[in-house]
């Protein structure tokens, strides 16, 4: 299962690399404000809100610790797909996912350890070993992004064909793996279902709201705001599972992490649907 999870994360990040060209890096440098705001929301606001939710549910350790691992995992292609479906700024979404994917080599173990300390205290012994975690993340996060982006830059026609095949393979592998985890953890999901559902729903909803609020406070329009809101609320579930199973050796957290998938489907997809019908026609008419 750890091999399947690693393959899922690798393919997801490879897809992101194939979608992100070096030309986009240069464009970002010319107008970086939305990127800075998105990174601030993802790496400062999001952990703070997640820690607050986890602390509130600290009497149910499986729920609290699962939320910590989820927030330590950056966004992924699911967030990009929702932004694309809604008709918002897919370029910003891809940029944030790519940059956060690169930064997570350092941010993931730090966020996880701070969260564990807050929820469980030092006596729990919970800790993501920095060197081991960075080694894992380098192979399954940084490497595929760099390879995919390099292919997109040097041989774009080949990258375009490869993109289609890789997406279908990723969707198939990801769906199958998550279904297996869901079935394997049915008993655990049943035991913590009520608390888990409330906590995960609160986290996802709060993060979408905070993403929109922060974007508006800094003067960004709805197209940027929705992309940032999705990035901070839709996290990389396979990566969170891999950290729970392979690095932390806590398979008891997997059930709550998998439960995050239907929560994303209902809340984030519902938000994308609302945005599509609320702002889609207005933005098209204005050329936004």
Structure description:
This protein has about 290 residues and is mainly alpha-helical. About 85% of the residues lie in helices and about 0% in strands. The protein has a single domain, classed as Up-down Bundle (Na+/H+ antiporter like fold), CATH 1.20.1530. The protein has 13 helices and no strands. α4 packs across α12, α10 packs antiparallel against α11 and α12 packs antiparallel against α13. Residues about 280-288 have low confidence and may be disordered.
Specify the helix fraction band: over 70%
Classify the secondary structure makeup into a structural class: mainly alpha
Q: Mean pLDDT, as a whole number?
A: 86
Strand content: under 5%
CATH architecture: Up-down Bundle
Q: What is the string of helix and strand elements?
A: HHHHHHHHHHHHH
As for the number of domains, it is 1
So what's the overall shape? globular
The N- to C-terminal Cα distance equals: 43 Å
Strands, total number: 0
Which residue ranges are poorly predicted, with pLDDT under 50 across at least 5 consecutive positions?
Answer: 281-288
Query: How does the major sheet shape up?
Result: none
**How many whole angstroms does the radius of gyration measure?**
18 Å
CATH class: Mainly Alpha
Secondary structure tally, helices: 13
CATH fold topology: Na+/H+ antiporter like fold
């Amino acid at each position: 299962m750890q091999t399947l999870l690693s393959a899922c994360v690798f393919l997801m990040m490879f897809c992101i690399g194939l979608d992100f060209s070096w030309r986009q890096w240069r464009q970002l440098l010319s107008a970086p404000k939305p990127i800075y705001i998105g990174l601030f929301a993802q790496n400062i606001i999001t952990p703070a809100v997640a820690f607050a939710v986890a602390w509130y549910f600290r009497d149910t350790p499986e729920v609290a610790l699962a939320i910590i691992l989820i927030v330590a995992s950056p966004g992924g292609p699911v967030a990009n797909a929702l932004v694309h479906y809604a008709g918002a700024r897919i370029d910003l979404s891809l940029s944030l996912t790519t940059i956060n994917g690169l930064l997570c080599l350092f941010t993931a173990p730090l966020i996880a350890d701070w969260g564990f300390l807050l929820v469980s205290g030092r006596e729990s012994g919970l800790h993501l070993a920095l060197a081991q975690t960075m080694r894992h993340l380098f192979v399954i996060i940084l490497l595929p992004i760099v390879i995919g982006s390099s292919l997109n830059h040097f041989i774009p026609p080949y990258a375009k064909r490869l993109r289609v095949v890789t997406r279908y393979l990723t969707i198939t592998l990801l769906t199958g793996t998550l279904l297996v985890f869901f079935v394997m953890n049915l008993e655990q999901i049943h035991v913590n279902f009520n608390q888990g559902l409330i906590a995960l729903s609160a986290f996802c909803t709060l993060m979408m709201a905070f993403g929109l609020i922060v974007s508006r406070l800094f003067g960004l329009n709805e197209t940027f705001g929705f992309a940032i809101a999705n990035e901070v609320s839709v996290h990389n579930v396979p990566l969170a599972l891999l950290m729970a199973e392979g690095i932390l050796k806590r398979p008891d957290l997997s059930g709550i992490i998998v439960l995050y998938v239907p929560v994303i489907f209902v809340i984030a997809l519902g938000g994308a649907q609302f945005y599509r019908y609320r702002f889609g026609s207005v933005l098209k008419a204005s050329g936004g």
